[in-house]
Amino acid sequence: MRFKIKVNENTKHADICTSVKWGLNNEAYSLSDDYTILKWDPNSLESSKFVDLEGYGTDFDFLQGQRGSTDLLAIAFSDGSFILQQKTGKVEKKEKEAHKGAIISIKWSVDGSLATCGEDGALKIWSKTGIIRSNLVQIDKPIYCIVWSPDNDGILYCSDKMIYIKPLQAGQKQVQWKAHDGLVLKVDWNHTNNLILSCGEDCKYKVFDTYGRLLFASAPYDYVITSVAWSPNGDYFAVGAYDMLRLCDKTGWTYSFHKTNQGSILNIAWTSDGTICAGAAGNGSVIFGHVVERCITYDKWEITLTEDNKIQIIDLIDEMNSEFDFKERVINMSMKYNNLIITTSSHCYIYSFRNWNTPYIFDIRDSVSQICQCANYFCLVEVSSGIMVYNYEGRLISNPKIQGTKFEHLSHKKIAISNDLLALVDGGNNKVVKFYEMNSGKALNFTVEHSLEILEINLNQTEMIGERKLAFVDQNRDLHITPVHKKDIVKLAAMTDSFLWNEKFDMLCAISDQRFVVWYYPTSVYVDRDLLEQVKVSKECTDLTRNSQILSFQDTMVQIRRKDGAIMTQSVSPYPALLFEACERGKWEKAIKLCRYVKEHTLWAALAGLSLQFKELNTAEIALAAIEAADKVLFIQKIINVESEKAKSALLALFFKRPQEAENIYTQAKLYYRAIKMNIKLYKWERALDLAIQYNVHQDTLLAYRQKYLELTGQQETIPRFEKLAYDIKKYDWVEIKNKIKQEKAREQQS
């Protein structure tokens, strides 16, 4: 990926260009010391005069109104004043003494509040009509740049060598840290990935999280870094300096480096779709960088965006290639599950690998920020319309009604889809994951709630709906798994940089503490927690530094992008996939033969988990014996020898460590003695007494077992209810009790 640089050498400002912004229809606006604001077409590079100014403008910003309208313009001046002006040229408000000295930066928030900062060290908040609301910050050094927080409840600003995050609400603590060894000139806060970007006079650019922890620091450049800006999607950012424009990945490594020969780039702005970057140059020019050569690969296909509106498709095995042209600029591309999805500003194209020549095409109402795919469906995240679910023939399936989510800032890490469910981190509470039906878009009445903020989610892609699992990483970078229909969160790993489910089977891979980890069957934790460590394969990889990302997990190959941008591949054993195929088809003998041939402990453990999940007890007995789990083998043999199907189900639930479920099965089947005896074996004496009294059965049997237990342990009775029961019964006969138990078992066999 790189910038395709375009500059109009014949048309430019007469003086230095200090600021650049984008309008609603992808037209650029530039501010200069020649008292003008010019309007630019990024394709033809033609410009026209937009506004004449009465003084030296330092910065300006458009208010993004309803449906993205940009009617109100705020312009800051070097004499400390600012004006609010309509696009038509009508001045709504002029504040002559907003600051003492020049206003350096001016920014609108989404809700219509205006923030200004300047050489006097003041940061002020104004209303939409230009009325002062608060003097938020007053320090003794100039403030060079301000950015609103993603939720508009705070402001990021820089002064001297420091970066600050100031909450708007009184009483909340300000976060601050030393960011650079020289003056911090520019900062930017991305609303999608929630990361902070900065540059300074120490000739470096850096990436921080919101706590001030350094994630990336560049090597010193030859000149001062004068500008930085995030792409709206948060996947990459641009860096500007003297005669230099650089495109970088969000982890910091460089995609492309360009010599511009236009002087220092003092300000950078991106289009809302993240496809074009505009830079304000020191010689008065405006530089346009079109993002091209975006490349995605899947299976044997490689797709490259060679021009703004042209893609190249290469068959890597058969060495065939073809090109497709589009009428509009390509904005998003996604390729998975044998389908390629391409979106422009007004259309969506669906290409099937079986037929590249006749794509399905349909109109889209708004710009698309994300594309998510699963085996049968895909969804488009549109800025105003929300999440639209389609099948691969272009038919609209559903449009879930989701409240409290800003779709233009929705990260691909906080949305996941499968053939039956759509999962989404709640926009109002980042500790909650909500679920929606794919076919109807209806919100389901179950959620997953966690104690910490959830950073990333992913659904497994198994075809069995009852086996649907959600994996997620929380704020502490701990990896967890839970069933979607019942909250049962289990921690799998700590210090997790990235994770991903296999595209077809129930395998999960992760990068954890510089190790590559694969769980052949992580769902086994819900049948026997002892199996979780036994189905895990861990490999130490010194090449996997912090912030490495898993790109794909297809069949037995895992593609990983390291922090430095290099792509590496890790292979996974092919045998688990063969095992899954055999088990899903019910070919258990074939699965056993495969494990005996391979002779891998992890494969036997995976077979044990699968067979227990499918309640295939004979196979489970063989698999558990192979991993030398003698105690579990004996219990499975006991279950096999039980004739009652209800009793088998209850014992299996007990094996899965779900005693309450086992008790419910017993009581519903009127197997009261078994329910009481189970609680006795678990030393839940009072619960056993509750059952005996509730159903008025086996009270003397329970008392006999209780007194026998006390005699063996040499203890006195300490439970008053059992003392009362002993007083009421007074005497019991073991022979009579044994006869009652035999009669109970005979009745079970008859039933």
From TrEMBL:
Gene Ontology cellular-component terms listed: cilium; intraciliary transport particle B
WD repeat boundaries on the chain: 96-127
Bilayer-spanning residue ranges: none
Keywords: WD repeat
Domain (IFT80 second beta-propeller): residue spans on this chain: 293-575
Keyword Cytoplasm listed: no
Domain of life of the organism encoding this protein: Eukaryota
Protein name: Intraflagellar transport protein 80 homolog
